[in-house]
Every structure is written in structure tokens, then in C-alpha cells.
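Worked example 3 (structure in, sequence out).
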């Protein structure tokens, strides 16, 4: 059986379902997928050394907090990915490391599959890191009318605001430190921080801010039903789970790695069945 050697570099990733997704996708084609979880601190290396140690693999997924840091190590052919300044998928080929962003394509697909043709309107986006960048650029594709960014790292938030304005000069973009400064009046509310994931409980967006908003998305997918999404649903918002982003970004990443088209319906069913069997 042909072995496809991949991997995931990130922090706090022990609960990740990415290995299962790629192994199940590979099984559709008779591929044995080797997909270890690579945490720099546990490997006794910094990110750069760990990344370099993986160059004999076919590719890597990159997650929090390294999606922006990895950019300087890569060749990025897609000008849109270069403009957003974040990468979650790396393919090693022809002696080069090529960067892609399937968080971006995965978010757009997840939004359309779940919320259909619903316009995003004006959106409050909490978190301007790697996944926040991808989601913000996805919102441009979806026709967002305004983006309000909140991040305690104001340099990071201003950097993303500048990238968005360069991509669409007429876009209304504002920057704040806290979520409570941006949610009022927003149509959509998005958590793009790691708060709420297993090992980091809580929510970056207090429940009291949600009534009157239209829809909510949480980039966190472990657990699927985060505190933020539960509060949004209780407040009457349409909700989009981070699991949908996880699924579609994973499908797109597998296409880059294997250059094959997985059976999405079969993969979704196998993932859900494997999860319920645990």
C-alpha cells in the first residue's frame, strides 16, 4: 500500500480530528496516510526546526499559533493567499515548500452550504490571527458590507485591516480591542480565537451581546457545540459550526496533498460514524 506522509504542526492539538479525516480520505484511494500530531514543545524543537525536520513528508497542515509565522518559509503562488498572510496547508514538491490556505476556501464553502445565499451583512470578527485572516478574506467573497475587528493585539488587528482595505478599497473596516465594542449592530458574529476549544474553556463573545444579531460562526470545532454557539442558538441566531469549516478545509487540503478528489459524502459519513463509535 502506498504511504502518504503528512502531519499537523500546532499547539493544543491532541483532540484534533485531522488525522482521522486524512486517513479516511486516503483509504478511499488505497493510501496509507501517516499523519502524526507534531507539537513543538513536545518534540523539543522550536517551530522552524520542527518544520524543517518534516521536509521529507508530502505535506503538512499548520494550525494555531503558526499560520502567519510559516508564511516566510514558503513559496505562495496564489496572490490572494499572499495578500491574507496566513497558510494552513503546505505541500513539499520540486524542492520547495508551497503554501495554500484551505481555511479560506473551507469557510466560504461551509457558509454557502449551511447558510445558503444569505448575505453576511456587517460582521463582528473577534480574533485577527491566522484563521481570522482566512475568514475575513472569505467574507469578502461572500459580499460582506463591513468588518469590525476585535483583538487585544492591536498591531495584528491593524495589519489585517490594512490587508482587507488593500483587497477591497471600499470596505468599511474598524478595529477595537474588545468584543463588546464591535458586536452591537452587527449582522454576523464570529469567534476566530481559540477560546472555547478543549483545554481553553470559555467564550470570547459574552452571551449578553448576541440577542438581535442574525447569525454566528465559531471557528472552534472541538467541541462541536461550544459555549459561544450554544449561547447564539439560545438567542435565536442561525449558527454555523466550526466542524463544517474543519471538514471542508480538510477536503481541500487532501486535494492538494494527494491530487485526488475524495468522495465527500462518503468521507463525511465515515467521519461521523468513527466519531460516534468512540
Amino acid at each position: 500500500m502506498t504511504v502518504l506522509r503528512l502531519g499537523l504542526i500546532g499547539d493544543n492539538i491532541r483532540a484534533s480530528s485531522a488525522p482521522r479525516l486524512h486517513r479516511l480520505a486516503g483509504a478511499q484511494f488505497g493510501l496509507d496516510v501517516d499523519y502524526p500530531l507534531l507539537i513543538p514543545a513536545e518534540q523539543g524543537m522550536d517551530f522552524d526546526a520542527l518544520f524543517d525536520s518534516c521536509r521529507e513528508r508530502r505535506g503538512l497542515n499548520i494550525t494555531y499559533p503558526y499560520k502567519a509565522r510559516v508564511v516566510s518559509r514558503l513559496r505562495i503562488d496564489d496572490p490572494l493567499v499572499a495578500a491574507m498572510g496566513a497558510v494552513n496547508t503546505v505541500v513539499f514538491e520540486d524542492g520547495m515548500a508551497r503554501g495554500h490556505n484551505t481555511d479560506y476556501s473551507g469557510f466560504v464553502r461551509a457558509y454557502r452550504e449551511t447558510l445558503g445565499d444569505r448575505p453576511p451583512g456587517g460582521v463582528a470578527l473577534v480574533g485577527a490571527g491566522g484563521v481570522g485572516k482566512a475568514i475575513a478574506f472569505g467574507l469578502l467573497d461572500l459580499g460582506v458590507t463591513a468588518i469590525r475587528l476585535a483583538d487585544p493585539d492591536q498591531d495584528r488587528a491593524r495589519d489585517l485591516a490594512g490587508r482587507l482595505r488593500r483587497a477591497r478599497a471600499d470596505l468599511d473596516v474598524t478595529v477595537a480591542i474588545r468584543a463588546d465594542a464591535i458586536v452591537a449592530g452587527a449582522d454576523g458574529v464570529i469567534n476566530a480565537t481559540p477560546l472555547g476549544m478543549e483545554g481553553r474553556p470559555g467564550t470570547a463573545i459574552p452571551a449578553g451581546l448576541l440577542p438581535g444579531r442574525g447569525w454566528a460562526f465559531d471557528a472552534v470545532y472541538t467541541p462541536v457545540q461550544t459555549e459561544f454557539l450554544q449561547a447564539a442558538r439560545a438567542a435565536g441566531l442561525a449558527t454555523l459550526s466550526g466542524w463544517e469549516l474543519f471538514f471542508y478545509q480538510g477536503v481541500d487540503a487532501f486535494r492538494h496533498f494527494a491530487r485526488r478528489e475524495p468522495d465527500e459524502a462518503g468521507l463525511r459519513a465515515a467521519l461521523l460514524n468513527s466519531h460516534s463509535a468512540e
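Notes: The chain has a mean pLDDT of 96. The longest strand covers residues 89-93.
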